[in-house]
Each structure stands twice: as C-alpha cells, then as structure tokens.
Amino acid sequence: MTDLDPTRQRLLDAAGPVFAEKGYDNASVRDITDRAGVNVSAVNYYFRSKEQLYLETVRTAYEAIAEAAALTPPKPGGPAADRLRRFVRAFLTRLLRDDGEPWHRALIMREVSEPTVACAHIVEGFIRPTVQTLLGILDDLLPPGAPAQKRQLIACSIAGQCLHYVHGRHVIPYIVGDDAARDLTVDVLAEHVAEFSLAAIAKLYPARKQGARK
C-alpha cells in the first residue's frame, strides 16, 4: 500500500469536502465512505481511525496550498521594505488564489476558527514557517532593541490585514460596490498593505532608516 493507492486517494478526496463543510465532529465516516464509494471498513484499513483520516486530509490541504503558492524566504540583501512588499504579495496570492480545490482553503479556515487536534499540525507545518519568514524581514525593518512582543504584534497586524480580504471577501462588495471590489486585485491589495505597514513602522520607529539592514 502506498500514498498512490487509488482507494486511499478516493477517501481523501471525499473526506476533504465533507470535513470542510461539516467540521470534524459533525462529519461521519458513513458520509465520507458513501461519497468515496467504498466500504466503511476502508477508513480503518487505510487510516486506522476517523481522527487520523482527518489529520491526513488537513495535511493534504495545506501541502497543496503551500506547493501551489510557495512562500520561500526572501534572499538576504536588498532593501527590507522591498522584501516585505514581495512577501505580502506572495501571501495574498496564496490566500486569494482560486485555481485549486475549494475545500483546501475552506478546511484550513474552518480548522483555524474551530480548532481540533489538527491545529497544531497546521501551525507547525504551514503557519509557523510563514511567520518566521515575516519575522526575518521585520528583523531588518525594526531597530535591534525593539521588544519581542512588539515585533510579534507587528507581524500579526500585517498578516491580519491580508486575512481580512479572505474573511471579508463576501462582505466587501456590499461596502464598496461590485465594480470597486473587482478592482481590488492582489497587486492593489499587496501595495496597500505593504505601504500601510511600512508607514506604521516608520511612525513607531522614526529613527530607523526604512529598508536598511541591521
């Protein structure tokens, strides 16, 4: 039995939309096996339990997202402000792309808002590497004496601005209008978030030369 086993793959493909729609607690093994067209016992055979199937489904989701929109750490050198702009654009591209399986993002968002045992796996395999990349850029934007808590809060603020356009994507057209909402492309949003964030950092630390390395 390998990861390419067709029955195992059918179970994962079926479990993803079910878990994304119903959540871990409300999804039943019967829901998943009926969708996959396999016997209920297949879950125990391939995954040992519903929980392990869920963990594997979550892992499949975040690995697919990461592969489709890689967030590689920016190469050292060059203005940190430019590296922040590139990071924000890549992060927004990852969050807003719609060419993958819809359940991938839906499942991750559900797990983050309604965490289960899988949340720790998402953090270690998917979120923490992204945060570390952002913190590395902030190391070059903030003064050496900046408190660690402030550094972390600034990182959360930058990520939060990006996430707003995911969580609010259905509401924004009601606020700004359909035409204006369509104009909010990744490029437009990335430039705004980066510009806003850099201005805030400059206000907090006016003596720090923007874009300079330590």
Write up this protein.
The chain is mainly alpha-helical. The protein folds into 2 domains: 59 residues, Homeodomain-like (Arc Repressor Mutant, subunit A), CATH 1.10.10; 130 residues, Tetracycline Repressor, domain 2 (Orthogonal Bundle), CATH 1.10.357. The relative contact order is 0.12. The mean pLDDT is 90.
Secondary structure topology:
Layout: H1 6-26, H2 29-36, H3 41-47, H4 50-68, H5 80-96, H6 102-113, H7 118-141, H8 148-167, H9 172-176, H10 178-182, H11 186-204
Helix pairs in contact: 1-2, 1-4, 1-6, 3-4, 4-6, 4-7, 5-7, 5-8, 5-11, 7-8, 8-11
The CATH topology of the largest domain is Tetracycline Repressor, domain 2
Q: How many structural domains are formed by the residues?
A: 2
Largest sheet, if any?
Answer: none
Report strand %: under 5%
- Write down the secondary-structure element order: HHHHHHHHHHH
Report the helical percentage. over 70%
Indicate the structural class. mainly alpha
**CATH architecture level-2 label of the largest domain:** Orthogonal Bundle
Q: What is the distance, rounded to the nearest whole angstrom, between the alpha carbons of the first and last residues?
A: 52 Å
- What is the global morphology? elongated
Poorly predicted parts = none
Number of strands: 0
How many H/I helices? 11
Give the integer mean of the pLDDT values.
Answer: 90
